[in-house]
Amino acid sequence: MDTTARPALGRRLFPVYAALALVLFVTAPFVIAWAPFEATMGLVQKIFYFHVPAWWIMFLSVFICGFASALYLFKGKGSADRLAVAAAELAVLFGLIGLVTGPLWARKSWGVWRQWDVRVTTALILEMTFIAYLLLRAYGGPGSERLAAGLALFGVLNVPFVYVSVDIWRTIHPATSVVPTLVLPMGLAFWWCVAAYVVLYLMLLEARTRLEEQRARVDELYLALED
Amino acid sequence: MSRHARRAVGAALQVIGAAALVWLVLAHGACAPAPESSASAQPQPPEQPEEFVPIAELPPEEQLPAAPLLVTAYAFVWAVSLVYMWSIWRRLATVEKELAEVARRTQDQQRSL
Prior knowledge:
- By secondary structure, chain A is mostly helical.
- Chain A is built from six helices and no strands.
- Chain A has helices at 9-34, 48-75, 78-109, 118-139, 144-168, 184-226.
- The radius of gyration of chain A is 20 Å and the shape is globular.
- The two termini of chain A are 16 Å apart.
- Chain B is flat and about 95 Å long.
- Chain B has helices at residues 3-30, 38-41, 60-63, 67-112.
- Chain B has two domains: 1-31; 65-113.
- Helices cover 73% and strands 0% of the residues of chain B.
- By secondary structure, chain B is mainly alpha-helical.
- Chains A and B meet through helix 2, helix 3, helix 5 and helix 6 of A and helix 1 and helix 4 of B.
C-alpha cells in the first residue's frame, strides 16, 4: 500500500484553504447584496448565487470521483480509490445543498416546492447514484470497491445529460445561457461564490482524503500485527 | 494492459457509444424548431389595468415573502458545511486514536520477539 507516499503539499495548504474559505463565505452576503435584483423574481433570485455553484462543485466532484475510479479499476492504485471515496462523499454533500436550495427558490418563483421537470429529475438521479456508491462502499463487503468504481463511471456519464437538459428539453428551469450573460455586479457575486465553494471543496477534499489514508494505515498495521 | 483490462475498456467504450447515440437522437428530436406564432412575432404592449388589487388578495405563492426562503438557503449551506467538517474531525480523531493504539501494540509485539 502506498499510504506513506502522500504528498505533504495538501496538508500544508489546509490552513490556507480554511482561512480563505472563511473570508470568502463571510464576505459573500455583502457581495450578493450589492448585486442588483433580478427583474421578474426579485430578492429570491439571490439563492442562485449559492445554488448554482453547489451544483458545479458537485459535477467537479463527480468528475474527480470518476477519474480516480478509472485509475483504480485499470491501474489498481489504492490512493486513487481513497480519493474516489472522498470525492463521492463530497459529491453527495454538494448535491444535497443544490437539492435543498433549489426548492426554496422554486417555492417563490414557480409557486411549488418541486417540479418533476427533466433538469430537477436528472439531478436527483445523479445524487441518488452517488448515495448508492456510498451505500455500496459501506455495506457491499469485499470487492465492493470495484463495483462502486464502475457505478462512479456510470455517474460521470449522467453529468452531461443534467447540464444540457435545460437547453434541449422543454423545462421551466433557467437555461445554461444565464451565467455567460450576467451583468457585471451579478457576475462578480456569482464568481465570488464559485471561488468560495472551490476553496471550501479543496479544504474538505483534503481532510476527507486524509481520513481515508489514516484508515488504510490502520488496516495495514492490523495486517502487520496478525503476521 | 492485461486481457481483463482490455475487455473492461472495450465494454466501457460500448456503453459510452450507446449513451452518445441515445443523446444525439434525443437532442435532435428536441431541437426541432417550433413554428413561430404571429403573437410571438410582434412585441405585445403591457395590459391596461382595469382595477387595483390589494396585495392580500393575491394567490398565496405571490404573497409569500422571499427573505425567509433566502435566509434559510444560506443558513442551510453554512449549517451543512459546519456539520460535515465536525463529522470529518470526529472520524479523524477516532481513527487516529485507533492508529496510535495499533502502533503501540505492534511495537509491544516487536519488543517481545
